[in-house]
From TrEMBL:
Signal peptide: none
Residues of the Co-chaperone DjlA N-terminal domain: 26-142
UniProt name for this protein: Co-chaperone DjlA N-terminal domain-containing protein
Superkingdom of the organism of origin: Bacteria
Source organism per UniProt: Shewanella loihica (strain ATCC BAA-1088 / PV-4)
Gene3D superfamilies: TerB-like (1.10.3680.10)
CDD domains: terB_like_2
Pfam families named among the record's database cross-references: TerB (PF05099)
Amino acid sequence: MIAKLKQFLTAQTHAESPEEKAKHLQLAAACLLLEVVYADQTLDDQEAALLPELLTSALSLSMQEAQALIAEARQVQGNATSLFEFTKEINDQCTLEQKQQLILAMWTLAYADGNLCRYEDQIIRRTAELLYLKHSELIQLRNAAINKTR
């Protein structure tokens, strides 16, 4: 498990295939979404149902693939020491629009239970900073998520 995490976090000495890069990106995104889910120390039913839906729609995965990704992300996320481990992968591979979609998904998860915990808010804000998003973008995405959940 630790070896797998080290492999995920450190630069590869050999060139990664496009499939490996895509898998690392999916895992990083899933880990960041799990950070939001676990921020308030409870796994709400709405959050648990929404997480695989977000992954299937955003990453074009089947429900089984999303569930497997969530299980793998739980292991990696539980051993992570900072958000940077995941945001670096996203910064390396994603466009601005893709980063915004990730933050929108994080806000949507945070508001899924009808209550925004201050820890959820902090994680999303720190993630947005690490993804080099402007504060105005963060607020626009938050407002879009609020309107989506109404």
